[in-house]
Every structure is written in C-alpha cells, then in structure tokens.
Amino acid sequence: MESNELRIFRIVAREGSITKAAQILGYVQSNVTARVQQLEAELHTQLFYRQRGMVLTPAGEKLLDYAERVVRLLDEAHQVLNDASEPTGRLKLGAHHTLSAIHLPMILAKYHKVYPNVELSLTTDYSDALAHKVRHFELDGAFVKSGFEDANIVQELVFEEQLVLISRPEKEDVQSVCNQPFLMNTIGCPHREQLEIWLKSIGIRSIRYLEFNHLDAIIQGVISGLGASFVPQSAIQKYEEKGLVRSFAVPAQYSSSKTYFIRHKDTLMTSALKEFTNMLQQNPLRSLPIQQYT
C-alpha cells in the first residue's frame, strides 16, 4: 500500500467521482480507476459501491479514517524536515467572500512583501465549507463568519463590525426599504439569517430575495435600484459618501458581524503559519483586540 494510492483514494472518496478526482489530481481517469482497483486487490476488499458515483463501502469508510491520518502524518513529517526559521513553503488559507473582497488583500499583500518565499494560496467559500476543509487539513487556517463549538478547532476573534440596511438614496425610511426585494447571498449566509430574525422582530415575515453571491454585485444591484441589502458598513462607506446609497442602522443585537480565524488544533505550526498569525495580532483588521478561544 503506497502513500500515493492513499492520496488518490482520499480524493475519490471526498469527491465521490473518478472524473472529479482525476481533474483535481491532473491524471487521466483510467489511471485513477486503475490505482483504486489496485488498492482493492491488495486489500482483498471492495472499497466503493460503483452506482451513481463512487460511494464508500463500510470497509472504505474504515480505510478513509486511516488514510486521512497517514497522509496528514506524512505531510507533517515533510513540513517539519523542510521547515526553516525563515518562512517558506505553502500556506493554504481560506476566507469568506466579504472579507476576501474588502479587508484581506491588505494583510496578504503585506505578508507577501515580508515573506516572499511563502507560496500563498487563498480559497474563497462559505464558512461551513471552509470549516470542513480545516477539519480535514485541506487548509492551514480560514477566516469564517461564525465561531464553531468543536474541540478540534482553535478560533480567534479577529474582526467585528456592524451591518447596515442599504437602499437607493431616495428611500427615506426603513419601511419603504423593507418593501423591496433583498439582494443577499444564498441560504446559509449568517448575514441573511440575522436579517430574517430582525425583520421578523418588526413584524415582516414575507421576504423576497434576489440571490447574489458576490458583495460587489450586491452593492451594484442596490445602486441600480434592484432592491435593498444588509451589508457591512465598511463596504458601502465610499458609495454613501458619493450619494449612491443610503444606510439605515439596525439594533446592535441583530447587526453585529464577527469574523474568526480558525485552524485545526493538530495543524502543524510551521514558521509560515506562525508568522501569519503573529502578523494578524500585530496588524488587526480593526482596532478590536484579538481574543483567544479554544
């Protein structure tokens, strides 16, 4: 049983598809199929049900747990043996859409300038998807919109700001704003959930949505008169100063937006990751102090 076979097995199990696994690995499909079959022959057991994709058998589920641990230990050994005092190598980070669009580029640019030998990569996704990648050691760390009650996750509050209701400037009161469709992310977005809780608290239960999954598109849609939205105040400040949008405050219990930096408790603290967390502490995204949670 070779480590490369276990890596291929993990990706096929994760994606549930030979085709997707081959695309990720950069292999031809027949090669991936052959390696999986070779592993099954060596272990004398079927690892996948091959109907409507690749679904793990009970034996496959058992092997996946070991494969995750073996591959992680091999990667960790490689990192330890190749880690230098001067940060080098890969640093795989994730961030939710809003942060990656507004606040993160500055800190990443500064980090790259100080540590040019670190190969930075950034994955933008929803918080739950990012947390899943952190739990499975696919990311060294990620910025997410909400904390997680998970003993395997270490999290730090790095950023907090207020959300505001926004609309075209001719809308003069909250009621007229709320009679419009709301331009928001898809279901599962914490901001959308906070908006719904607040609207219900003021007696509005029928909400129309236009779903956009990019902050800039949402703001431009509001400017164009498509409807209203509920976004970080920092994102619309320059537009409000130009008279393109108007913002309305929402009670604090509904409008606080927090961003946490999370990592797996067993993630190897390479010099690259250590210096990144140090830079976060020395250059907070806002003036709020970082608070440690475990």
UniProtKB/TrEMBL annotation:
Keyword Transcription: yes
GO molecular function ontology, one term from the record: transcription cis-regulatory region binding
InterPro entries recorded: LysR_HTH_N, LysR_subst-bd, WH-like_DNA-bd_sf, WH_DNA-bd_sf
Residue ranges of domain HTH lysR-type in the record: 1-57
Protein keywords: DNA-binding, Transcription, Transcription regulation
Matching Pfam families: HTH_1, LysR_substrate
Keyword Acetylation on entry: no
Alphabetical list of PROSITE patterns matching this protein: HTH_LYSR
Similarity field: Belongs to the LysR transcriptional regulatory family.
Protein's UniProt name: DNA-binding transcriptional LysR family regulator
Organism: Alicyclobacillus sacchari
Lineage: Bacteria, Bacillati, Bacillota, Bacilli, Bacillales
